[in-house]
Write a structure and sequence with these properties.
The structure holds 2 protein chains of 2 kinds. By secondary structure, chain A is mainly α. Chain A contains 13 helices and 2 strands. Chain A has a single domain, classed as Glycosyltransferase (Alpha/alpha barrel), CATH 1.50.10. Classes of the chains: A mainly alpha, B alpha/beta.
Amino acid sequence: MRNLRIDRARNRLLDLRKGRGVWGYRARTTEAVEPSTLASLALLATDPDSKGESLAVARATATWLASAAIRNSDGSLGVTPALLKPGWTTPYGLLLWASVGGFAAERSAADRWLLGLKGKTLVKAADDPMGHDSTIVGWPWVADTHSWVEPTALVLLGLAMDGQSAHPRVREGVRLLVDRAIPGGGWNLGNPVVFKTPLRPLPGPTGLALLALARLDGPNEVVRPAIGYLRTSLAETLAPISLSWGLLGLRAWGSEPSESATWLDSAFEQIESVEQPSPVDLALLLLASSGDRALGLLGLRTPRKEADHG
Amino acid sequence: MVDPLVSGTPEPARPSRRDFLMGATTLAVGATSALVYKKVAESGWSADVVVAKAANYDLDLTRIVRDGLTELNFGPAQVKGKSVLLKPNLVEPSKSAPQINTNPVLVRSVAEVFRSWGAREVFVAEGQGHCRDTGFVLEQSGLGPILGREKLEFVDLNHDDIVSKPNRLGFTNLSWLHLPASLVRADLVVSLPKMKTHHWAGVTLAMKNLFGVMPGVAYGWPKNVLHHAGIPGSILDINAAVQPDLAIVDGIIGMEGDGPIMGTSRNSGVLVMGTNLTAVDATASRLMEIDPYRVQYLALASGRLGPIAEPHIRQRGEPIAELAQRFALLDHPSLHYLRE
């Protein structure tokens, strides 16, 4: 039953491609890097024939990412051909190019651009309401703004794929994720405490941060409470993006709950009733359903063991 | 050239939102930049604002909204055949804190009114500032199931196609504003905010709610570009660009203290409605017992985008004095200016 659902989701995903063979955020919107990359990775992760149609589709997407339609001369990627900055989508290129092989020049240029992009730091006044260390440099969504959790985690995954795990900027990015963890467990967009009040975590950023920390040997001190948060919160959502990033984060630490297959099945069932599903939703559900293959595409060959770092 | 928005003369016939966003209108970009922080006379401005009692969400909110809008002379003539975009405030999902987001029952009621007045289409749109996952926001806020039952389309403005336009008002140094293409689709934009205190802006109401039209793919999560550009100026620039047509503030249950997400609920039992968002926000601010002249974005908007002085706002419905409640503010030096 599960495989049938996956086959149907794969077929729907393929049907949602735009004219150029890549995907938009919605059926009616223009082609975009994020949905195209996630869809390609999802097809690769769920294709039993690793040299089949999925690889051809992924290679076509990778080629599009390398084209002047979406890639800037500085090596960064746009969001869509009509929105060529900001370049927060660039790490998606690194993930897909590494998965299909080749594209060495593009990967190298993207690495350089990302390593040169720094979130803005702030020196806080004594009564500043922000609870985090605003001097740690990570990655912003948009140049000349502060660093945030999701872009930092994505960049860490992308750079680690290119052998940059020991780079000082990568290590500082890991430090940023640790600093931005919410005291009770998990991450939100990157504001753990404001006006001395801990804010609420969110499953999506928590899953992404756990993936990045698993990939880069992050310390365990923030992992255990985050796992606890996800195991509780994921039981109460069928939202594909949150559920999927959350489950991938748990799997990266060998902590996926036994109910996860049921949760994913329910999420697939729900999305099957949607007339025009979001390609990102479908792609992430497929990635989360692919066992360890998705982790492999994100550079994690085997799940980390939380206990190994306790 | 004298800009009528800053000269105190009545607002001229403005280009339609669609004309503006499609670039069919010549704009004096940056012409007002030098006037930032100058106080502007309100003498040419007047606006009607309705304050309606609504003790809870179990009441017939459709009737209350319909009556309020009718009081504003806003009805089928303005709505028939139009595409209507409803913009609730869904800043962050939390089942345990329903005071964060516009109540889904109110969204449904407003949609019902517009449909009954012959709108060609009504759709709900948001580009929430904290959580990228729209599905999670809709699910946890309770709005998703209602949209499904009512067959109301939802548009994720964070991931929409983009229309880039010159910054018309120029209160920030942002030369261009990147706006979601779905604004072009809408003939009428309705801001449906929650009545809340805000630990950076003082209050968050109809005008600040339009931060949520700015697409995250261009501005990030949160919309940090706008924070760096300055929150009050960004509020003005966005409102001047979007040109919202109407606001209905959900003050049935509002939020006080550490808003916009960590504050506590406050039963205020009001809806505030009007076609000039500056006047609506000034009235809602008074209902929270916060002087609108102390709220920086409202002081800047005064005379530029609308009136905030009581003599320039024709108050309809319930008197403010009878329904005003002193919303608690966070006790922090950065917010003491609001009441001292």
